[in-house]
Every structure is written in structure tokens, then in C-alpha cells.
Specification:
Blueprint (H helix, E strand, L loop, with lengths): L1 H5 L6 H5 L7 E4 L2 E2 L5 H14 L5 E5 L2 E4 L2 E2 H11 L5 E5 L7 H8 L4 E3 L3 H12 L5 E3 L18 H6 L3 E7 L2 E7 L5 E5 L2 E3 L4 E2 L9 H9 L6 E6 L1 E3 L9 E3 L6 E4 L15 H4 L8 H4 L6 H20 L3 E5 L7 H7 L6 E4 L4 E2 L2 E2 L8 E2 L3 E2 L2 H9 L5 E4 L3 E3 L3 E3 L13 H7 L2 E5 L3 E2 L3 E5 L2 E6 L3 E2 L1 E2 L7 E2 H6 L3 E5 L3 E6 L2 E7 L5 H5 L14 E2 L12 H10 L1
Parallel strand pairs: 1-3, 1-11, 2-4, 3-6, 6-7, 11-14, 12-15, 14-17, 18-19, 18-24, 24-27, 25-32, 27-34, 36-37
Antiparallel strand pairs: 4-5, 8-10, 9-10, 12-13, 13-16, 20-23, 21-22, 25-26, 26-33, 28-31, 29-30, 34-35, 35-36
Length: 549
């Protein structure tokens, strides 16, 4: 019977990909290079180059299946250089940041481009797989995704075609957004091992991502599409632990064995057992490294102080999300201060604990103690199960609106930001006060601004709204903006200056570098001087003594 069921399931890439028709909606798994079926992507492009088909594809992903020079970025580079707009007609992806070439095609209006939050996107696959029309959520209200603003359209081609749409609905007097897009005809997914029936395990992968849900979306009624899985190896039927099967074999039509060099765990790591959970190393400075004393460390330390205050307040370990950029350094500082045991870190792709990787490897972690599916991780964020989040920011305006990523000519996309800020009870934005070329030093227990950045981040009006912080505060949430020279609190009346770094002149170094005047009530406090010291802050003793009370 096994031979009958598995007949023809394990095939070459060309045989599997030949089922994709012109104009298909193709869902592709991938958080940067984690769970990205790189071999299938490259072979699909080769098939098109050699035969002219399939063409006119609409690609949908849970994040971005690629990294600089790899996966979709490599494909889009060739498409852009050759002026080819026939292969891919449209994309719906939450993050374009690691593909310079995809961004160019979007900005120049060469293909339709839509973007939603990673969390909404991962939910969408699950909802479509459940036979529902899309995702109904409050995430994105009064922001870039709201149809009364940009509707998630990244260019004019998308705005005209509107194949992925966001609509406003009122339920019991509250507004919600409904995110809809075409159901996938084909899914390209990835796992580590498949048996002869197609049962798929993910023991060597960095994350689970949204692999199962993408398969479900393609298989849901009425389309009953095709699912093609990339794996590293084939196992005999019956040899896999049923509890380790991430996607049951009957959901998979074809299995393609990939060359190892097209199946890396992350963009720069082919395989590390500490990433897949085979080995859990002790968390120490040998693993995390120690940051030099600079403004990035100053900001990370100030965020850590806020988290430790929360630990004392709650009397327990706190669950947090640490975003890319400066927030990703908070855990390094926590390890240096020996307080990492009080923080349960999470990454939106699914890992809990460990040391998050950065850059194009973001999404994976060294030594996580748990890894869950991405839609479940975002349910934890949107539901406010976490205690706090620290995220970066690009712009903030007088109304407290935050733009984390977009500028004219720069479209990295929202990433996981919208869902996290919607649900987190406390948001500690962390970033440098200005941008551009600058020379800001930390010496003698103070900040020395030798040359300030020429790009202002506190502006009269942000380019695009991704978080209306005033609404967050009105809903009872805490919002702080932490920089190397000042700390601001979002209030119902506006942004209030609360703390100033030693060595900083308020008028010269803060107010003159803002396009609006913040609220100032009395004399702002001086930021804790230990933040600017080359020695550890010694906060472990304080936290332990407070918890013993």
C-alpha cells in the first residue's frame, strides 16, 4: 500500500514545478532564508527562462523568502537588470528590506506590490486554510494599512489592481479591518526530512514559521491546489516520529530533494545544531559578546533598566519581544549584567530564549529553549500575553505617530511591527535621537556630541503612520521613546520630555533637533549615570533585593 500512496511523490524539481500554470498564485514560505525553499525558487526561475512558463505569477509569502544575493533577491536582480516584468506580476510580502532589487521594481511601479504585517500574513494563511475569507483584526486601524489611508498598497499598479485588499467593518460599535487576497494555487514549502509518503519533519530548521499553514491554504476548498516541499533527505515510511511531523504527507503532492548549498538554516549559516535546538548552550558573554561603550549600548542599557523595573513591579520573569537594531542588543547587556534569567525573550518567527541572530540571519536564535509556529507567536503578541516590547523607530511626530521603516525610495516594509505594537501593554521604542553621519561619544560618564546627525527623526509629520501611539496611551498602554540623550513619554496630551543625559544641553542638543516642541513639565530628570559608565551597572543586586521584599 505504501508504494501505491507514494507513487511519483519524490521527484525532480522540474517535474514538480511543471504543475504551476501561467497566472498562478504561488505561496512561498520563508523568514529571510529560514524555511526558504531556495532550490525550488531557483529551479522555478530556470524553468521560466528556458520555456517562457509559468509567467504572470502572484507571489505571496509570510515574510520574504530571500536575503541579499539569495532566494528571491537573486531572482529579482536578474529580472530588474533585464527589464523582465512577465515572470512575476505581483507580490504580497511583509518585508522587502533584504531585497534591494525587489524594492527597485516596486518603487518603479514595474509589478503590483502589497504589504501586510508578518502577523496578519501568517494568520491569513491559517484563516484561508480554514475556509474563511481572510483575517479580521484591529491591527492596522488608522495606519498605513487602513483603506482610508494607504490600504497596504506599495505602488500605483497595486492601487489600480487591488488584488489584495483591506476593508473596514464595524462590529458592536468597534472598527475592524478585513484583509483579503487570492487563495494560493500552489505552495512551495520546506522541511528537513520527508518519508516515502511525504510526511515532513523540520528537525534541522531554525524555525517552523508558517510552513503548515501555507500548505493548508493551498489545499483548502474550493481550489485544492498543489503543495511542493523541498527537503534535505528522504526517509523510509514509518521511520519518522509522528509527533515530529510538521506537515502530514497527504497534504504534500511532490517532494524535491535539495542540494545542501540551497538549504541553509539562515543567510550565513549552513547548519548549526544550536540553532535547530539539538544543542542548548549556556548563555554567557562567550556566546553573546560584550558591546563597547557607545550610544547603542547606552540606549540598550536604558531599555534594560525599564525591563528590570517591570520585573520588580510584577515580581516575576517578564516576557518580551526585542526587535531588530538597537533593541536586539538588550539581551547582550542583560547577560553582561547577569539579569538575563529575569527576561523571557521571544522573536516573532517563533523562538523563545537563546541569543537572537541579527542582520539577514534575524529570525533564528542560538540556543532557544522553545520554538513555536509563527501564527501562534503572533497570537501571543496581539493578545497582549507578552509584558513588553522594545522596537526601533525611524520617525515620530508631534501626535506620537511612529514610522519604523518607510521613506521615499525606501520600502523595507512593516515586518512584525504592527501586530506587536497593537498588543503589547508596554512599548519601549529605542533608537538614536538623530540619523545620518554623526560622531557621538560616551566618555567621562556623559554624552559628547562632536558631530550630530543631519537627519531629524522627531518630525512634524511622519512619512507613513504605522503606530498611532496616542491611541495606545488612551487604551491604557505605556509608550516610551528611549534615545542616547533623552527619554520621552507618550501622554494623552502629547510627547513629554522626562529625562536628559549628562552632558546634554536641552535647547542646543534636543529642542533644536526636533521639528516640534515636546511637553516639558518642570526640570527633566538626569538619566541614570551608571548607563554611561564603562563598568557594569550592578543592577542584579538591586533587582534581587527588591524581589526579596
Amino acid at each position: 500500500m505504501i508504494g501505491i500512496h507514494s507513487h511519483g511523490k519524490v521527484v525532480g524539481a522540474r517535474r514538480a514545478l511543471s504543475v504551476i500554470r501561467d497566472g498562478s498564485v504561488v505561496a512561498v514560505s520563508g523568514f529571510n532564508m529560514s524555511t526558504t525553499p531556495e532550490h525550488l525558487i531557483e529551479e522555478l526561475y530556470k524553468l521560466y527562462r528556458e520555456t517562457g512558463h509559468p509567467r504572470g505569477l502572484f507571489l505571496i509569502s509570510d515574510t520574504l523568502p530571500g536575503a541579499p544575493g539569495r532566494g528571491l533577491d537573486r531572482v529579482f536582480e536578474e529580472l530588474y537588470r533585464e527589464g523582465d516584468t512577465d515572470f512575476i506580476k505581483a507580490v504580497l510580502m511583509p518585508y522587502l528590506g533584504w531585497s534591494e532589487w525587489l524594492q527597485k521594481m516596486v518603487i518603479e511601479d514595474l509589478i503590483e506590490a502589497y504589504t501586510w504585517s508578518i502577523g496578519v500574513m501568517s494568520y491569513w494563511f491559517r484563516e484561508v486554510g480554514s475556509g474563511r475569507p481572510g483575517v479580521l483584526t484591529r491591527v492596522g486601524l488608522n495606519t498605513f494599512f487602513d483603506p482610508r489611508m494607504d490600504g497596504g498598497f506599495l505602488n500605483e499598479k497595486a492601487r489600480r489592481a487591488q488584488r489584495a485588499r483591506v476593508q473596514v467593518f464595524a462590529i458592536d460599535g468597534r472598527e475592524y479591518l478585513l484583509y483579503t487576497a487570492p487563495q494560493p494555487d500552489v505552495a512551495l514549502i520546506r522541511g528537513s526530512t520527508a518519508d516515502e509518503l511525504g510526511n515532513l519533519t523540520m528537525e534541522d530548521e531554525a524555525i517552523y514559521g508558517t510552513v503548515l499553514n501555507i500548505a493548508q491554504a493551498a489545499k483548502a476548498y474550493p481550489k485544492k491546489g498543489r503543495v511542493i516541499a523541498q527537503v534535505l533527505r528522504i526517509a523510509r515510511f514509518g521511520s519518522l516520529n509522528p509527533k515530529e511531523v510538521a506537515v502530514p504527507g497527504p497534504l504534500i503532492d511532490y517532494v524535491v530533494v535539495s542540494p545542501p548549498d540551497k538549504h541553509w538554516q539562515t543567510a550565513t549559516v549552513s547548519y548549526d545544531p544550536r540553532i535547530s535546538g539539538k544543542i542548548i548552550p549556556p548563555i554567557s558573554e562567550d556566546l553573546t559578546g560584550r558591546l563597547p561603550l557607545n550610544i547603542r549600548k547606552v540606549i540598550a542599557r536604558r531599555v534594560l533598566l525599564e525591563l528590570m523595573k517591570l520585573v520588580v513591579e510584577e515580581g516575576r520573569q517578564v516576557i518580551v519581544n526585542l526587535g531588530v537594531g538597537i533593541p536586539s542588543h538588550v539581551m547582550q547587556v542583560a547577560v553582561e549584567e547577569r539579569v538575563d534569567e529575569y527576561i523571557a525573550t521571544t522573536i516573532e518567527s517563533g523562538p523563545w530564549g537563546g541569543v537572537p541572530l541579527t542582520g539577514p540571519d534575524f529570525g533564528a536564535a542560538l540556543g532557544p529553549y522553545a520554538i513555536i509556529q509563527m501564527p501562534d507567536q503572533f497570537a501571543i503578541y496581539e493578545g497582549g500575553v507578552i509584558d513588553a516590547a522594545s522596537l526601533g523607530f525611524l520617525q515620530v511626530d508631534r501626535e506620537g505617530n511612529v514610522n519604523p521603516s518607510m521613506l521615499p525610495g525606501r520600502l523595507p516594509g512593516p515586518g512584525g511591527f504592527p501586530v506587536i505594537v497593537t498588543g503589547s501593554p508596554r512599548i519601549f521604542y529605542a533608537g538614536a535621537f538623530t540619523a545620518g553621519r554623526r560622531d557621538i561619544r560616551v566618555a567621562g560618564g556623559r554624552i559628547e556630541i562632536v558631530e550630530d546627525g543631519s537627519i531629524l527623526k522627531f518630525v512634524d509629520k511622519v512619512y507613513k503612520v504605522f503606530c498611532p501611539c496616542k491611541r495606545m496611551v488612551e487604551a491604557g498602554r505605556t509608550v516610551l521613546f528611549i534615545t542616547e540623550r533623552a527619554v520621552f513619554r507618550m501622554t494623552r496630551d502629547g510627547l513629554r520630555l522626562e529625562e536628559v543625559a549628562p552632558g546634554v544641553d536641552i535647547e542646543r542638543d534636543i529642542l533644536s533637533k526636533m521639528e516640534f516642541t515636546p511637553l516639558i513639565e518642570g526640570e527633566p530628570e538626569v538619566m541614570d549615570k551608571s548607563i554611561f559608565s564603562p563598568e557594569p551597572m550592578r543592577i542584579r543586586e538591586w533587582v534581587r533585593s527588591e524581589l526579596r521584599r
